[in-house]
Amino acid sequence: MENLSPKKQKALKLAKQAQGTLVKVIHMIEENEYCPNIIQQADSVCGFLKSIKRELLAGHLDSCLVKKISEDKESAVKELIKIYNLSN
Fold first, then answer.
1. Which of 1, 57, 63, 76 is the most exposed place for a label (fewest CB within 10 A)?
2. Count of domains forming the chain
């Protein structure tokens, strides 16, 4: 984990939090808990996943993309369009 960028370290931390919350959602469903409570936890997982995407994208734009633009601008633009389309 030490060799990860700060953005990837944060994304990993968020992913582990999402994982823990998802395990809780599964348990709540198995235990037939009240649906609104399960939905609230599921929404929390979705929030974590969105945060993970934001952190990874910010890190990519800040480091990887800068290098890629200098090497192959056309490919970098295509990659940005792909990421944009995946985000919507």
1. 1
2. 1
Question: For a pLDDT cut of 90, what percent of the chain falls above it?
Answer: 66
Please tell me the distance from the alpha carbon of residue 54 to that of residue 65, in angstroms, as a whole number. 15
pLDDT tens for 34-49 read 999 999 999 999 999 9
* CA angle centred on 51, ends 6 and 68, rounded to 5°: 55
Total-model pTM: 0.83
Q: Is 56 inside any structural domain?
A: yes
pLDDT in tens, 15-27: 999 999 999 999 9
Q: Structural domain of residue 58, as residue ranges? A: 6-87
Q: Is 2 helix (H, G, I), strand (E, B) or coil?
A: coil
Of 34, 79, 31, nearest to 57 by C-alpha is 79
